[in-house]
Design a protein that fits this description.
single chain; mainly alpha; 1 helix; 0% strand
Length: 82
Amino acid sequence: MSNFAVKRFHWVRSPSAWEHTQSWRARQQAYRENFEAANSSAGATFFNATMTLVSGTGAIVAQTAARRDQAKALQAALNKLA
């Protein structure tokens, strides 16, 4: 056996500072695009939820008003018969 110790392997080249910076910028752009897509999706979801709430509330109000009008009409008809 020999006392030869290998401290480094130079099989894979390390990226240069410029390549490292370009890689970092590309990752940041991907993160930003992902955030913007998620943000847009969340905004659309909240908007749709709000619109569903408003239309659902409107439907409930309309049903309540229709039932009230029907009850008044029924009461008026019963009053005429009595």
